[in-house]
Amino acid sequence: MYEELLEDIAQHNRLREVNTGTKLTAGLGAVILCLLSASFVAPLFIALVLTATLLVLARIDPATYGKAFFGPLFFAGLGVGAIVLLAGGEGTFWSWQPLPWFSLSVTQASINQGIFIFSRVIGGTSALLFIAFTTPMTDLFLVMRRARMPEEVLDLAMIIYRSIFLIMDQMVQVYQAQLMRLGYSSFRESIRSFATLAGSVFIASWEAGEDLTRAMEARCYEGKFAVLGEERSLSLPSIAAVVSFLAVSAAVVGATSQIRLF
Amino acid sequence: MHIMEGFLPPEWALFWWVLALPCLAFGIFQLKKILAADREALPLLGVTGGFIFILSSLKLPSVTGSCSHPTGTGLSSVCFGPWVTSVICAIVLLFQSLFLAHGGLSVLGANIISMGVVGPLAGWAIYRALRDTRVNMFFTVFLVCAIADLCTYIVTSLELALAYPAEVGGVVSSFILFLGIFAITQVPLAIVEGVVLALVFKYIVQLKPEILVRLKVFPEVKIRAAAGDA
């Protein structure tokens, strides 16, 4: 029920010390290239490169990575299935029209489209996981401040970030206590237990919020948190690696735009 | 369930971003106003955001056993208003895509519109309509949360249908199909979310009614009466 947050892993991955901007350029660039691609080849290529980078260079545990990767894909599969049935097009294999305005079919074109969308999700997910596994949120706050994000929003984001861990701890403790007392033995019981769990955690975190207000007042908070973060220096090899990755991927996007599976 | 990274074609991802940005700007404007009036609100908004994050990363005890999750935005919308909820939601969605690979960056705009704008707005409309009537307070909270959750999924289906219209029947029939897929898990889930959050609300009324009185969620008399009854 409470999966390990990717954040914990990001705190001690091997690419932690690489400049945040360099890593973000790689991740965001990959997201954009996946969207621009017109065939299924380029996103899969991007996914392959980023996965290899994560497993080999960042030394992410393959089992953890697999779990984070395949969870979302299952739901993508459902959505893609619906699109394959709806999209229609040339080369019909199977079709069914229960109502005049509603028809389901499987065609050559729709299978191609389904594969294309699915590969884009694979590419996009790998780019997202690349950022998630290599860049802790604390580093991103620094980038956000430099990008002129409004102070209020940034402060709010940092408090939310902090409270997630506080609330999570409490939630796990209460949940385990409830579980031991058979709080989730039946459906009715689990609704009741879950409500008291959420209620008590809400009140507890509210009180934590009030404590935080007092602590901040005592330290003369006036509407701006100091963001502490080390500057991670730019390094030539990593910039070269990211630039060549993006260039090769862009070339793949351009070269493979006509390729279809069927 | 949020739309996943890469699922929407670029033009639609951009379209939803363009729609989401003015909503966020207005939310930030309201947030600044609230914070200028009462600086103590910031930590409280923060823990609410943390709460939404946890709630929407959790699997509720759902009948179908799917990974559907509550959105938790109804409660925040009632407490702080819909636009501030949009900002909180946007931050939460960003964290979810970067902590759990849940949602995505290019589709963040679409997810903000469904979970952070339309859901809370719908919930808030119901709350405003029923707040000063004689309708039971807990039933109001139930409706607000259930409707906010349902509207979120209706808009998600619409976003998918607009991007991928069916060959026969166009957007309408693909909307119906996506809605059908979601409805299997989402209708029971919305009801469960409504019940759970109404119970949470009852629990807060019993143990710490000051919170609700301070936020002026319901008239004080009503809250005091409910707390006294319990």
Quote the CATH topology of chain B.
Arp2/3 complex 21 kDa subunit ARPC3
What number of structural domains do the residues of chain B give?
Answer: 1
Strand content of chain A: 5-15%
Biggest protein-protein contact in the assembly = A-B, 88 and 74 residues
Quickly give the structural class of chain A: mainly alpha
Kindly provide the radius of gyration of chain B, computed on alpha-carbon positions and rounded to a whole number of angstroms: 18 Å
The overall pLDDT average of chain A reads 84
Question: How many individual β-strands of chain A?
Answer: 2
- Overall 3D shape of chain B: globular
Number of helices of chain A: 9
With strands numbered from the N-terminus, the spatial order across the biggest sheet of chain A is: 1-2
> What is the terminal separation of chain B in angstroms?
35 Å
Poorly predicted runs of chain A are none
- Helical fraction of chain A equals over 70%
The global form of chain A is globular
| Biggest beta sheet attributes of chain B | none
From the coordinates shown, what is the CATH architecture of chain B? Orthogonal Bundle
The helix-strand sequence of chain B is HHHHHHHHH
Order of SSEs of chain A? HHHHEEHHHHH
The CATH class assignment of chain B is: Mainly Alpha
Label this structure with key terms:
heterodimer, A: 262 residues, mainly alpha, two-stranded antiparallel sheet, 2 strands, B: 230 residues, Arp2/3 complex 21 kDa subunit ARPC3, 9 helices, 77% helix, 0% strand
What features would you describe in this structure?
The complex is a heterodimer of chains A (262) and B (230). Chain A is mostly helical and 262 residues long. Chain A has 9 helices and 2 strands. Chain A has a two-stranded antiparallel ribbon with strand order 1-2. Chain A is globular and about 70 Å long. The two termini of chain A are 41 Å apart. Chain B has one domain: Arp2/3 complex 21 kDa subunit ARPC3. Chain B is globular, with a radius of gyration of 18 Å. At the A-B interface, helix 2, helix 4, strand 2, helix 5 and helix 7 of A face helix 1, helix 2, helix 4 and helix 7 of B.
